[in-house]
Amino acid sequence: MTTDERPADAQLWLRRQTAGETHPFADLGVTFLEPGGTPSQLLDTSYLTDDDRANPDVMANVRAIEETAALVTWVAVEPQRAVGYWRGPASIPLDRAPLAQLDDEGQLRLTGAVSVTEFYAAELEELLVDDDVLLEEHGLLDEDGDLDDDALRAWILRTLREAGYEGAEPRSIYDWKRPEVDVDPEDFHEQRYRDRG
Length: 197
What we know:
Elements lengths: L7 H11 L12 E2 L7 H4 L6 H5 L1 H14 L2 E7 L2 E6 L12 E5 L4 E3 L5 H14 L2 H6 L11 H14 L22 H10 L3
Antiparallel strand pairs: 1-2, 2-3, 3-4, 4-5
Helix pairs in contact: 4-8, 5-7
């Protein structure tokens, strides 16, 4: 693995962002990371107190989070979450690596989405459904001012297709299945936490 490996969709959105163009997930606060980038704000430990640093349990957890996060090819970050491809200790090839998300509590979980675009398209759909201002900005309201479900699904599908998605319909998050991997990031974190020596 080289640090500049990127799935094609992540490359597309990063190119747009770098060129100063908008990408479809800007409303979510998504920033696409440069190759080799990390979600540094989620891995920052400057908030730890001297008491925290003297606590072996706290420091074992910090090390476990860092060691687990190091096995991910990170592609995007938001204020309270980051998304990347779980390579695991076996360095799963990127084209087979499952998508994972890291939250602001240091929890790294597999998502079931097949790409960063699919993941954020589902997140965006959820956001848009509850935000009339954004729906109007994106032209997704019908003549009565209500959500136009067909227009929303077509917009999401266009976004997915632009990134190379070939399905007839976007997959619902309810269709996502937890990927099977030899070593799950949650299990890896737990193992590293217990191996304090």
